[in-house]
Amino acid sequence: MNDQSPSSATMGVAVFDGVEPGPRVLITAGIHGDEFEPIVAVRQLQVVLRNEAIRGRVTLIPIANPSAFNRGLRTAEDDLDLARVFPGSPTGSITHQTAFELSERIRQADYYLDLHTGGTRLQLLPLAGYMLHSDPRVLAKQRAMAEAFQLPLIWGTSAELQGRSLSVARDANVPAIYVEHGGGGSFDFSIVESYLRGCLNVLAMLGVIERQVDCRCTPTYVEERHSNSGHLQVCHPAPHNGLFMPCVQLGQVVDQGDPLGTVFNVSKNIETPIPAEHAGIVLMLHTSPSVSEGTGLAVVLQTNPRLRSSE
Ligand SMILES: [Zn+2]
Question: Containing H/E element for 284?
Answer without folding.
Answer: strand 280-286
